[in-house]
Amino acid sequence: MKSVHGIHHVTAIASDPQRNLAFYAGFLGLRFVKRTVNFDDPQTYHFYFGDEVGAPGSILTFFPWPGARRGRQGTGQVAVTSLAVLPGAISFWIERLVRYGMKFVGPNTRRHGGSDAEHVIEFKDDDGLLLEIVGHEGAEARSAWRGAPGISAEHAIRGLHAVTIWADAGASTERVLVDTLGFRPLREQDGIRRFASGDGGPGTLVDVRSIGGFPAGVSGAGTVHHVAWRVPDDDVQLEVRSQVAAAMLQPTPVIDRDYFHSVYFREPGGVLFELATDSPGFAIDEPVERLGERLMLPSQYERMRTRIEATLPPIHLPAPVSAPNQAMTIDD
Ligand code: ZN
């Protein structure tokens, strides 16, 4: 059996494109690695944020739909997206949250058995997406974007840490993680079961929280659309795809997303999963030093560029921020 290699990216729904850009590139200091359109709906943006090159495991992507109705976290969703930092960076992030007037909970220490301590701050983006910054020793091995104004490399976010799936009854979801995707169960604490793939460090972790009786999630702004798991190449992708098909989960054919190749399927608990290849990556259509500066279109839409550019709302990369910014306030 072939296993996936942890999280490739998380894709969520946002409302205002400029606010989304200000939060993820400005406040969190992720690199804006690709401005493109939703390949299935080219009149709307698709934003990608990550480390310097948008390496698999560092990527958060958004469909910013102006005026999108707010969704609601609930079962059948990836409800929480956790970002990794070095343990020593937690106080920097608390200070930054305070300075931007943002609500947060923490820091709390979670011990997943033994010495494997995590220092966690919980907060939300402007649309209500549940986020965590997690200080963990393993973040040392992950890359960071060093170009964010006001955020040094020692404080910078180092990719995704984990995702938390809220499940009505986690058993069927857990079976897919283990039997079909090759995750291994690590431990259970406070009703949350943790699974890992690959080296088991930040970026390879999935928590399944069974909250039976809790209302099902509603898709909309502030909710995760899908989580993508890493597959190293096209061959492994096809092998994992056939494992998914054998589990009667009806995977899509391989779809070319230009920056990676994708297969989608819905796990029995209701969460949309994707298998995404590590290559070719975001430097396929613009140089690494210019990532995110121009609107990049897949070839099938290039002839419509003028019309698409006229439809999309104008955006600008956030300027270096040193003072509190009203647009950053989270209202809930
Ligand atoms: Zn995706």
Estimate what percentage of residues fall within beta strands.
25-35%
Widest sheet, order of strands: 14-15-16-13-1-4-3-2-17
By CATH, the topology is 2,3-Dihydroxybiphenyl 1,2-Dioxygenase, domain 1
Content-based structural category: alpha/beta
CATH architecture: Roll
The beta-strand count equals 17
Provide the residue-averaged pLDDT. 93
Structure annotation, total helices: 6
CATH superfamily: 2,3-Dihydroxybiphenyl 1,2-Dioxygenase, domain 1
Which CATH first-tier class would you pick?
Answer: Alpha Beta
Q: How does the major sheet shape up? A: 9 strands, mixed
Which spans of ≥5 residues are poorly predicted at pLDDT below 50? 320-332
Q: For the terminal residues, how far apart are their CA atoms?
A: 44 Å
Q: How many structural domains?
A: 1
Q: What is the C-alpha radius of gyration, as a whole number of Å?
A: 19 Å
Bound molecules: zinc ion
Shape: globular
Would you give an account of this structure?
The structure is a single chain. This protein has 332 residues and is α/β, with parallel strands linked by helices. The chain has a single domain, classed as 2,3-Dihydroxybiphenyl 1,2-Dioxygenase, domain 1. It contains six helices and 17 strands. The longest helix is centred in the last third of the chain and has 13 residues, at 234-246. It is globular. Mean pLDDT is 93; it is low at 320-332.
